[in-house]
Specification:
mainly alpha
Length: 207
């Protein structure tokens, strides 16, 4: 069981995380010495709480990861496979375009903190199961697999961040882009007329 921090230590921890959050939001890479200077705390104090910048970044991202893991659990309890997957992907892309700490933590091959590793695995597992259910139900293309989701969602988030307008508009833009993406991922019946025309060089079949 984790020993509770003393009040002064807890205040220092909160101050460090708050300053780190501000740095991440402004796009400044986390450096523990820089965090110590901005908090007015000693470098040793910062290092006692966070041994590495990665551990501090993961702590900043933790609330977002916790929410995504909870959304995954809710989606897994849904009864409509296609809707459950779409809802989970919507929550994922919202998080990607509103929390700058998420992308580098999610993309990292390893985790500095055990809790980060647990949350990332829970989120990945939820996405995989939701996709398998949607595919089995015929709600998405049969050739879509879990490995495809990560680059697709990252590409969508990148497009929103670059072209989505001011931060206040990005969630709406993300929803619009996601709706377009989901439209392309849906399983649709093959149009045999178009297929026949393609096979005959575009000429209608002769009677």
């Amino acid at each position: 069981m984790t020993t509770p921090l003393r009040k002064d230590a807890a205040r220092n921890w909160e101050r460090i995380v708050s300053v780190a959050r501000a740095l991440v939001d402004e796009g400044t890479p986390l450096q523990l010495n820089d965090v110590a200077r901005r908090t007015g705390l000693g470098v040793g104090t910062v290092y006692r709480h966070f041994a590495t910048p990665e551990a501090l970044l993961e702590t900043v991202a933790a609330p977002c990861l916790e929410r995504l893991a909870a959304h995954g659990e809710l989606a897994l309890a849904g009864t409509d496979p296609g809707r459950a997957l779409a809802d989970f992907l919507a929550r994922t892309v919202e998080a990607q375009v509103t929390d700058a700490a998420l992308a580098p933590v999610a993309a990292a091959d390893s985790a500095a903190l055990p809790r980060t590793r647990e949350l990332k695995e829970a989120i990945r597992s939820a996405g995989t199961v939701l996709l398998e259910r949607a595919r089995a139900a015929g709600a998405v293309r049969p050739d879509l697999n879990a490995a495809d989701l990560v680059p697709l969602m990252c590409g969508l988030a990148y497009a929103v961040n670059v072209h989505g307008g001011p931060p206040a508009e990005r969630i709406d833009t993300a929803h619009r882009y996601l709706a377009t993406l989901l439209g392309g991922l849906r399983a649709t019946p093959v149009d045999t007329t178009e297929q026949d025309a393609a096979g005959s060089g575009g000429r209608p079949a002769e009677g």
